[in-house]
C-alpha cells in the first residue's frame, strides 16, 4: 500500500479543533487522541484495539511521528487506511494538520479514527486536535511517579491505560499510587490496566472506546 506522508503545518488555532470536532460529529466519526511516552505501546495498543473492533467498525489511523513512517507501515500492513504525519521536529500534533489530513479519508465510510500523537508526556496534552476523547498510555517500565511529574497529560485525559501490565512483577511500580495520583489530577478518569502483548484488560478498554462512539 502506498503511504502518504504529510508534513505538519505550524499554525495554532483552537477554532480549528472545534471545527474538526463538529465536522467529525456530523459525519458520525469518533476520533481518539492516543498519547504517551516513546515506546509506551501506542502503536501496539492501537493495533490490539483494531483487532478487536474492526469486525464491527470501519477504522482509520493518523500516525504522528517527528520523522519516518515505521508506525504507518505497521498499520498499513493490517489493511487499515492510514496517513503518516511527520512534524519535522515538533513534539505534538496540531489541529491544522489534522484538518489538512482528513480529506484523505472517506469519512462517510469510517466510524473511528485513532490518532497516534508524538511520543512524549508534555506537549501533546497542550493541543486539542478535534478529538472526541483522549487516551493516555503509561507503561509499567516508565515508573509510578509519572502521573505526579507530568500532571497536564493526566489531568486532561479521559482514559488512562497502564500498559505492559505483564511487566508488573519486574518493576517497582505501585499501581495504587498511580491510580491515586491520576484520580487526584482528574476524578473522572477511567483507568485500565492492560497488556497489548497478552491481551489482559483489553476487553474493558474496548468497551471504553465503544462508549466514546455511542456519545456521538
Ligand atoms: N511486554 C510488553 N511489551 C509491550 C507491550 N506493549 C508494547 N510492548 C513493546 O514495547 C515496545 C514499544 O511499543 P510501541 O507500540 O512501538 O510503542 P509506541 O508508544 O508506539 O512507540 P513510539 O511510536 O516510538 O513512541 C515494542 O517492543 C512493543 O513490542 C506490552 O503490553 N507488554
Ligand atoms: Mg508508535
- Determine the fraction of residues in helical runs and give it as a percent range: 25-40%
Radius of gyration, taken over Cα atoms and rounded to an integer in Å: 16 Å
Beta-strand residue fraction: 15-25%
How would the global form be characterised?
globular
Query: What summary fits the major beta sheet?
Result: 8 strands, parallel
Number of domains: 1
Count of DSSP helices? 8
Can you tell me the residue ranges where pLDDT is under 50 for at least 5 consecutive residues? none
**Strand order in the sheet with the most strands:** 1-4-3-5-2-6-7-8
- Kindly, what is the distance between the CA atoms of the first and last residues, rounded to a whole number of angstroms? 31 Å
Q: Which ligands are bound?
A: guanosine-5'-triphosphate, magnesium ion
CATH class: Alpha Beta
Alpha-beta classification: alpha/beta
Full CATH superfamily name = P-loop containing nucleotide triphosphate hydrolases
* CATH topology label: Rossmann fold
Number of strands: 8
- Please identify, by name, the CATH architecture: 3-Layer(aba) Sandwich
Overall average residue pLDDT: 95
* Order of helix and strand elements from N to C terminus: EHEHEHEHEEHHEHEH
Short description:
The chain has 216 residues and is of the alpha/beta class.
Amino acid at each position: 500500500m502506498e503511504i502518504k506522508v504529510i508534513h505538519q503545518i505550524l499554525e495554532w488555532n483552537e477554532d480549528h479543533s472545534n471545527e474538526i470536532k463538529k465536522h467529525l460529529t456530523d459525519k458520525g466519526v469518533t476520533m481518539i487522541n492516543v498519547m504517551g511516552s516513546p515506546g509506551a505501546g501506542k502503536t501496539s495498543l492501537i493495533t490490539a484495539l483494531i483487532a478487536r473492533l474492526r469486525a464491527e467498525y470501519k477504522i482509520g489511523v493518523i500516525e504522528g511521528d517527528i520523522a519516518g513512517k515505521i508506525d504507518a507501515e505497521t498499520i498499513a500492513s493490517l489493511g487499515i487506511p492510514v496517513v503518516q504525519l511527520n512534524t519535522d521536529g515538533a513534539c505534538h500534533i496540531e489541529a491544522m494538520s489534522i484538518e489538512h489530513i482528513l480529506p484523505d479519508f472517506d469519512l462517510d465510510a469510517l466510524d473511528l479514527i485513532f490518532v497516534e500523537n508524538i511520543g512524549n508526556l508534555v506537549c501533546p496534552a497542550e493541543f486539542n486536535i478535534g478529538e472526541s476523547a483522549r487516551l493516555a498510555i503509561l507503561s509499567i517500565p516508565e515508573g509510578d511517579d509519572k502521573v505526579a511529574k507530568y500532571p497536564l497529560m493526566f489531568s486532561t485525559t479521559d482514559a488512562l491505560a497502564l500498559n505492559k501490565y505483564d511487566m508488573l512483577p519486574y518493576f517497582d511500580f505501585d499501581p495504587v499510587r498511580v491510580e491515586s495520583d491520576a484520580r487526584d489530577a482528574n476524578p473522572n478518569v477511567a483507568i485500565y490496566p492492560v497488556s497489548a502483548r497478552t491481551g489482559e484488560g483489553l476487553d474493558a478498554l474496548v468497551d471504553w472506546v465503544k462508549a466514546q462512539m455511542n456519545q456521538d
